[in-house]
User: Fold this.
Amino acid sequence: MHSVINNIVKSTEKRIQRIENEADPEENGSIRTEKRDIVKAITDKKSQNKVAVIAEVKPASPGKKLRDIMPDDAVMIAKEMEKAGAIAISVLTEPEFFHGSLNNLEAVRKEVSLPVLRKDFIINKVQFNEIESDLILLIAGILRDNLDEMVNLAIAKGFEPLVEVHNQNELEEALKTKARLIGINNRNLSTLEIDLDTTLKLAPIIKEYDINNNLHHTIISESGMHNIEDIKMVIEAGADAVLVGTSIIKSGDIYAKTKELVDALD
Ligand SMILES: O=C(O)c1ccccc1NCC(=O)[C@H](O)[C@H](O)COP(=O)(O)O
Assistant:
C-alpha cells in the first residue's frame, strides 16, 4: 500500500476509536426504511442508451484541494448532478485527506432522490452505525481477509455494498462474496497511478465468470475519467456504470460536465 493509504487507514482507526468511545457498538441503527435501487437505475439508464454516471461530491484528494464543499454547497452540486442525469451520487465522508463529512452526506441524501454512496475507508463494523446511505464502499485491497464478513454485515445492515478491486486477486476475492456491485478502481492504491486499462483487463473476467456461473454482477469503472473518449472506452470494455469525481468538480460547470458524460454515447 502507498504510504498515503497507510496514513488514511491510521487516521480512520483514530476516528473509529472516537466512534467506539461515543456510541453503543451494538446499536441497531442504519437499517434502511427506504430503498433507492441503483441496479434498477443503471439498467434504466442503459436502456435509454445513456451512460449511468455516479457523480462524486469530492472536496479534495490527498494533497490536492478541488473545492471547498460544505453541506449547502454539497446539496447544490448534487442537485446539478441529478438534474443532468446522474443515476447516483457518491459523497466523500473521509475528513482528513478528502475533506469530506458525514454532514455533507446527510444533507445530500435528504435533498436528492437518487441512491447515495458513502465514499470512505470502511474498516470496522462500527462505521455502519454512523450514518445512513444507500450504498457503502468496501475496498478489497484494504479489507483483505475481512472482506466477506464486512460484505455480509453491510447487507445485513441494509446497505448495498460496492466492492472495489484493482487487480485479479482482489477480483477473485470479491466474486466469492455476495456483493452485486463490483467497482474496478483504475487508480492503483499502491502507487496512486491511474490506468484505464485496469477496467479493460478486469471487466471481461467478470463477464466470463458471470456467464459460467449464471450470475449477473454490475460493473462500475472508477477513477481517472475526464472525457467522452474515456467513458466510451470503459463502457465498450463492459462497464455498466462509471464513477467520476475530479473532472466534474474541477469543470466549473457541474451540470454541463455531468451531462456531457451522461450523453457520451450520443
Ligand atoms: O482520489 C484520490 O486521489 C485517491 C487517493 C487515494 C485513495 C483513493 C482516492 N480516491 C478515491 C476514489 O475512489 C475517487 O474519489 C473516485 O473513484 C473518483 O475518482 P476521480 O474521478 O479520479 O476523482
Observations:
- The beta strands are 52-57, 60-61, 64-65, 88-92, 116-119, 135-139, 160-165, 181-185, 218-222, 241-244.
- The longest strand covers residues 52-57.
